[in-house]
Amino acid sequence: MRFLVAQFGLLAVLSGVALAQTTLHTTTTLVVVPTLVQTQEKELVFSLTGEDFVLTDNGVQQKITLEEESRRPLSLVVLMQTGGDARGQFPSYANLDKMLASLLGDASNEVSIVNFDSRPEAASPFTSDVAQWSDAVDHPDEGDRGAAIFDSLAYGLDLLKNRSSSNQRAILLISQEHDEGSKTSLKDVVQELGETNTVIYSVTFSAEKTAARQAFKDPAHLNPPLHVGEGNYQAYFNLSEPLRLILGAIKKNTSAEVATLSGGEWSSFDNQAELERNLGTLKNHLRNSYILSFSPTSVDPGLHTIKVQLAHHPEMLVSARSNYWSSEPPDSKMTKH
Fold first, then answer.
1. CATH of the domain at 126
2. Residues 82-98: pLDDT tens digits?
3. Which of 101, 201, 218, 253 is most buried when burial is the number of CB atoms within 10 A of its CB?
4. Which are the contacts of 164, defined by CB distance < 8 A and separation ≥ 6?
């Protein structure tokens, strides 16, 4: 199992700046940077203080704050693919309610479940009790042929906009690797991530591999005869699947990319045991990250590159967000003295 960690974040806006006879009125917000520190053997490190971290924004060192208590309540949206080739992974979802309950943990945390195919379905109300949605989570209805990942992420981000700004905001995306059919662009998702300070955690399956395996299980009538010349040959499995497997291998893993951009983690699964193991690792990392924050000193809108390092422990592995989005707040304006 492989995890990549990086981070996008919250809007960085200008603090009041006086320029000659012009005053710029703005507000200031924090960029929050969850940071995971591990040894070379991938063991978590718990003993660091704020003085151990060095953070730069576009190469300029920032003054950072380390939260002494990182157990802020969690608002989590789970986006679960039920369309496209996800039906071949429904057996992996069998105990998902228990996995999510373990991930959620404390009663102060809350979760909303959203199924999606070519579009996101209505969300369940936020709750700390996943058990009330057990049947819908463990035995979802099969969706259509779509897998609108970006549209569903945008939907989840809109849900999180209405949750408390003091909460950690996160999306758990359980899906295939690549988007199919979204109208929302990756750029739109990135900007919304900045506005809501949300982290995406992606756990993906291979649509091509899942479909190829499912083709052997489906009744023969789902795989119509193959016409070659004057003859008809019954395909006991879909002969196009090997081609899909090859073509799919060269597509970008967009689910992993968007998790990386947001500062989250991604992993892959092919069965229930792997899904449970990955979510267990994610739970451990969520609860043991250092929470750094800073007020940006840069006034430049757009994409900023941030880097987190350890001042005295170069041998340790640091995983943190590498970017955030900065833009002028809509109410900023220029006034004359």
1. 3.40.50.410
2. 999 898 999 999 999 99
3. 201
4. 73, 75
CA-based end-to-end distance of the chain: 60
| Cα dist from 32 to 27, 67, 139, 157, 292, whole Å | 16, 10, 36, 17, 6
Q: What is the DSSP string of 18-35?
A: EETTEEEE----PEEEEE
What's the one-letter identity of residue 249?
A
Establish if 232 belongs to a structural domain. Answer: yes
Kindly state the helix (H) or strand (E) to which residue 256 belongs, with its residue range. helix 254-262
Q: 302 and 160 in one domain?
A: no
pLDDT digits (tens, 9 = 90+) for 269-306: 999 999 999 999 999 888 888 889 899 998 788 778 88
Q: How much is the pTM?
A: 0.74
Q: Within a domain: residue 315?
A: yes
Closest among 11, 6, 70, 5 to 197, alpha carbons compared:
11
- Full DSSP string of 164-186: -TTSEEEEEEEEESS-BS-SS-H
Helix locations, 7-73, DSSP H: none
Domain limits for position 96: 74-287
Number of domains in the chain: 2
Residue type, 12: A
Q: 3-class DSSP state for residue 301?
A: coil
